TrEMBL record:
PROSITE patterns, sorted: ABC_TRANSPORTER_2
Keywords, alphabetical: ATP-binding, Nucleotide-binding, Transport
GO MF terms, alphabetically ordered: ATP binding; ATP hydrolysis activity
Pfam families: ABC_tran
Protein name: ATP-binding cassette domain-containing protein
The organism of origin for this protein: Peribacillus asahii
InterPro entries on file: AAA+_ATPase (IPR003593), ABC_transporter-like_ATP-bd (IPR003439), ABC_transporter_ATP-binding (IPR050763), P-loop_NTPase (IPR027417)
Chain ranges of the ABC transporter domain: 25-258
Length: 335
């Protein structure tokens, strides 16, 4: 399987200007300005195989959007090598743009005052898509994203959720093999998010479309991606499987017990268990939480002993969410 994206030693620096104080400082700024070089992306390297769905995540200012802009040819790198779909995004720009689709959650590629279908027709001509190709592909896209009732409406009259579905359809008019999604579900309600996630999974399976997704919505990552590339201060701090991240950082499991009759915490702590358990009482839900390491058959042993010792009304197992894992990583600064 060949690579859709190859990045080696990629770096992007910006000049950050600072103003001197006072009137005298303002005059000096007219002649010479103070500035420092700030690296937004700091010598990163990674590859994405064709057909992969990869989450590219990090806190605000980590360098995610800067990377996407370099990969799509919007920004020129300070140094390093980029090969996307076998091309250099900056040197072969016109040919290259026909092979990618881009959705920026904060920016629109649709014309604000004309009907959605007119924007689609204009993009069809820009990408030189034949009528036959357009009809075959876009009829499916329009139906799946449920945007047929929106086609004759001006973009400015659409809700955010409606516009984002149309933006996604617009990015796929030429059926590109590679799709860049920068915060595609930002501000959307749950039903629209689910529709977009299902659609992305479908095009990945049907066309083997490669997807690079940057998002703060960790539900998107869990629903779509098996691999995560995590960025912090312009550097990659983790590149691997989502499951591996969960296994290494989501070691603790919480088992919630709701008892038929009141039980004392001392009784639970006295249970004959061969491994450590931390018991906590949740006053809001009137349940006891047993926090244990997820090793071997510890969970089944725990449930078995508790169930044989006390009448149980309900049992729930809570796994550490990806959101909690990512927060812990950024708080500790280590992976």
């Amino acid at each position: 399987m060949s690579n859709a994206i190859e990045v080696k030693g990629l770096r992007k620096e910006f000049k950050s200007y600072s103003s001197r104080s006072g009137l005298k400082g303002a005059f000096r700024d007219l002649l010479t300005r103070n500035y420092k070089i700030v690296p937004a992306v700091n010598d990163i390297s990674f590859t994405v195989k064709q057909g992969e769905m990869v989450a590219y995540i990090g806190e605000n200012g980590a360098g995610k959007s800067t990377t996407i802009k370099m990969l799509t040819g919007i920004l020129t790198p300070t140094s390093g090598e980029i090969v996307v779909n076998g091309m250099n995004p900056h040197r072969e720009r016109e040919k290259f743009t026909r092979t990618i689709g881009v959705v920026f959650g904060q920016r629109s590629q649709l014309w604000w005052d004309i009907a959605v279908q007119e924007s689609f027709r204009l993009l069809k001509k820009v990408y030189k898509v034949s009528d036959e190709q357009y009809n075959e592909h876009m009829n499916h896209v329009i139906k799946t994203l449920d945007i047929e009732p929106l086609l004759d409406k001006p973009v400015r009259k659409l809700s955010l959720g409606q516009r984002m579905r149309c933006e996604l359809a617009a990015a796929l008019i030429h059926n590109p093999p590679l799709l860049f999604l920068d915060e595609p579900t930002i501000g959307l309600d749950v039903l629209v998010k689910l529709k977009i996630r299902e659609f992305l999974k479908e095009i990945n399976e049907k066309y083997n479309t490669t997807i690079l997704l940057t998002t703060h919505d960790l539900g998107d990552i869990e629903a779509l991606c098996e691999r995560v590339v995590m960025l912090d201060s312009g550097e990659i701090i983790y590149d691997g499987e989502l499951q591996s991240l969960k296994e290494n950082w989501g070691e603790d499991k919480e088992v919630h017990f709701q008892f038929v009759k009141p039980v004392q915490q001392a009784e639970l702590e006295a249970l004959p268990l061969s491994f450590p358990v931390i018991w906590e009482y949740d006053e809001k839900n009137h349940t006891y939480l047993a926090v244990i390491k997820d090793e071997g058959d510890h969970i089944s042993q725990l449930i078995s002993i508790v169930v044989t010792s006390f009448p149980i009304k309900d049992v729930k197992i809570h796994e550490t969410s990806i959101e909690e894992i990512v927060r812990n990583i950024y708080e500790t600064g280590t992976v």
